[in-house]
Amino acid sequence: MTKTKKLINNPDDIIFEMIEGFLGAHPHLVARKGESGRALVAVDGPREGKVGIVIGGGSGHEPAFLGYVGRGLADAAAVGNVFASPSPEPILEAARAVNGGTGVVFLYGNYSGDVMNFDMAADEAAGEGIEVRSVVVTDDVASAPAERAHERRGIAGDFFVFKIAGAAADRMASLEEVVAVAEKANRSTFTMGVALGPCSLPQTLKPNFSIGENAMEIGMGIHGEPGIGQGPLESADSVTDKLLDRIFAELSLSPGEEVAVLVNGLGSTSQMELYVLHRRVKQRLDEKRVLIHRSFVGEYVTSLEMAGASISLIKLDEELKALLDHPCQTAALQVGSVVPESGASRSAGMEHRKSSHPAAARSGSAPGSARSQAERPGGEVTPQIVAAMFRNVAAAIDARKDWLSELDGVIGDGDHGITMALGWTAIGRALDQVNSDDDIEAICKRMAKAFLDSVGASSGPLYATALLRAGESARGRAGLDAAALVAFIEAAAAGIRERGKAEPGDKTMVDAWVPAAEAAARALREGGSVVACLKAAARGAEEGMNGTAKIAARKGRSSKLGERSLGHMDPGAASTFVMLSAMAKALERELSETADG
Ligand code: ADP
Ligand code: MG
Questions:
Q1: Which pLDDT tens digit goes with each residue over 185-223?
Q2: CB of 112 closer than 6 A to ligand 1?
Q3: What residues pair up with 291 in beta bridges, in sequence order?
Q4: pLDDT averaged over the chain?
Q5: For ligand 1, is residue 400 a contact (CB within 6 Å)?
Q6: Does residue 416's CB lie within 6 angstroms of at least one atom of ligand 1?
Q7: Are 11-203+211-329 and 365-596 in the same CATH fold?
Q8: Which ligand is in closest contact with the Cα of 413?
Q9: How far apart, in whole angstroms, are the C-alpha atoms of residue 178 and residue 319?
Q10: Which of 26, 28, 150, 223 is catalytic?
């Protein structure tokens, strides 16, 4: 296959080079905050008393998301890698930077990786005393039927939701009001897209899907997710009619009602074509005697160089109209004219509040840590042994990475082994930094952070939450006895369920974690030792993993395959088994060494 051509330097540097380029071009609008280098904050956005707006998502959708940062729209954007959610770190940095004391709203498109990473950041922000609410955009009509509209993906309709919520916040609406109006905007926005050609990732330079020479795909997602079917390419008018008919089926519009229109290019479709599409949109709306309050034609949410376009309609009432018309000043959108705030109450003045909230001191120093070592509940599994167990996981994951990627190649995107190996290499490095006075909770925290910072895939927030919750279960303890070890496994399992919202039977890692925790609890009731309990957990995970071959996927990336995933094991369930069995082996070895020595 021939490679695509791109104007890039080292593909690994592309995100930071893009950010550097953006900041150099728009220094009067946006500045970088925090240590990740991926939190971009409006120079003239956040203000004391104003609800902060944080948007974000993967890169490759420019001008989304960083182009919508500025006065009157978003206060900050968190920037992920190409088509991958940002990790919680930049999201949290953005939330801190824009918190004006009245709360922060996260706005982003509905993708499980984004949901999990933004939720983790929201949890951490709450721990620092920042109140966060999230509104997830679900405008892509093609991605789920109307009864399951909440499962829909977010695409170009992000633009309307961000604009309206940003305006409400700029007018000093309360947190509740901003959330309510963002939800209303989302409910009122419907998008349908069409793809004519693929895009390629800078890392691979290979087209990410194939589309016949004279074909189009209606409803394809902005990362190349399958649409509702390929068909022969048709004229602009008949494609527009196809897209609009799907939208009109759900958005009832009566004569005299008003909408805003967004005709969005996906990356390599000409403005000329986009205006031809808009021409037909207006004809159809005129026929219905529906009025266009405002139109936007151009590139608003792209998909690298994908060919094609989407049409979004938002039904407007007086409130939404006023917010859409409210002035804003961003790189990608200017409406009206914005009078800059004068002096002290601006973002610069907000720095001091960063982590002055009493709750900020909460993390890390557990309530029990002041107690002397002797008073703390203990057990034979010391922090050193916990570290040794996880070091062995890192080795086992590295040894099995090709197998994990192969499994993921069959029912997912083939990255699970690479991703896990990256994450566990980072954990290995973090374990080398462990201090002798780090307790189990502190060790788990270090591991979770290392994992999150290096893993963009859904397994990042899932395993990181498992590690954090497991660590919390050991808070204040000097070591784990059998009961505490079982609680540790149970907390990890519960953390994964909480973060991913998958149920047993959905064909995910939950199907290995739940039987693992149950088997461990059973072994404990039977009076098992720490080793017996952990071995039981590993066996439970193994059975669960094998069982995933017999069920169809309902969560995560493979859920798109549904029945076609039958007969194949879930890669996340497999990595869970690898982890738990490596932990059990290391524990047995460590304890027998202790006994021998
Ligand atoms: P991605 O799907 O982002 O490429 P990985 O390939 O690293 O991420 O991990 C895929 C695994 O993640 C799946 O095999 C499944 O076990 C797990 N997974 C995905 N979504 C969920 C979820 N919502 N809850 C629990 N596990 C999930
Ligand atoms: Mg994958």
A1: 999 999 999 999 999 989 889 888 888 899 999 998 898
A2: yes
A3: 258
A4: 92
A5: no
A6: yes
A7: no
A8: 2
A9: 12
A10: 223
Whether the CB-CB separation of 314 and 188 falls below 8 Å is answered with: yes
Ligand 1 centroid to residue 202 C-alpha, Å: 23
**What DSSP line would sit under 556-589, residue for residue?**
SGGGGTGGGGTTS--HHHHHHHHHHHHHHHHHHH
61 part of the active site: no
Which residue out of 508, 511, 565 has the highest number of ligand 1 atoms within 8 Å of its CB and is therefore the one to mutate?
A: 508
Q: Which residue's CA is minimally distant from atom 27 of ligand 1?
A: 508
CB of 140 closer than 8 Å to CB of 193: yes
Which residues are registered as beta bridge partners of 107?
A: 55, 135
Residue 558 phi, psi (nearest 5): -75, -10
Helix (H, G, I), strand (E, B) or coil at 117: helix
Q: What is the pTM of this model?
A: 0.88
189, β-bridge pairs: 314
For residue 148, give every residue at least 6 positions away whose Cβ sits within 8 Å of its Cβ, in sequence order, or none.
none
For residue 83, give the amino acid letter: F
Residue having the nearest C-alpha atom to atom 10 of ligand 1: 572
CA–CA separation, 443 and 461 (whole Å)? 17
H or E, element range at 431: helix 416-432
Please state, in angstroms and rounded to a whole number, the distance separating the CA atoms of residues 221 and 378: 52
Which ligand is closest to the CA of 570, given by its number?
Answer: 1
Pairwise CA distance, residues 532 & 321, whole Å:
65
Domain 365-596 is found in CATH 3.40.50.150 = no
Residue 500 in contact with ligand 1 by CB distance below 6 A? yes
**Cα 523 vs. chain centroid, distance in angstroms?**
37
Query: Which 3 state secondary structure label does DSSP give 109?
Result: strand
Letter for the amino acid at 151?
E
CA distance 117 to 91: 8
520: its two tokens: 């461990």
* Domain definitions of the chain by residue range: 11-203+211-329, 365-596
Q: Which helix (H) or strand (E) holds 380?
A: none
- CB of 417 within 6 A of ligand 1: the answer is no
Residue 403 in this model has a pLDDT that exceeds 70 = yes
Q: Ligand 1 pocket, 508 CB below 6 A? A: yes
Strand pairing class (132-137; 104-109): parallel
Distance CA 246, CA 102 (A): 39
Residue-wise pLDDT for 278-323, tens only, equals 999 999 999 999 999 999 999 999 999 999 999 999 999 999 999 9
CA proximity to 16, closest of 45, 38, 33: 38
CA distance 127 to 361: 9
What six digits make up the tokens of 130?
A: 């920042």
Distance of CA 506 to the CA centre of its chain: 20
Output the CATH code of domain 11-203+211-329. Answer: 3.40.50.10440
Closest ligand to C-alpha of residue 454 is: 1
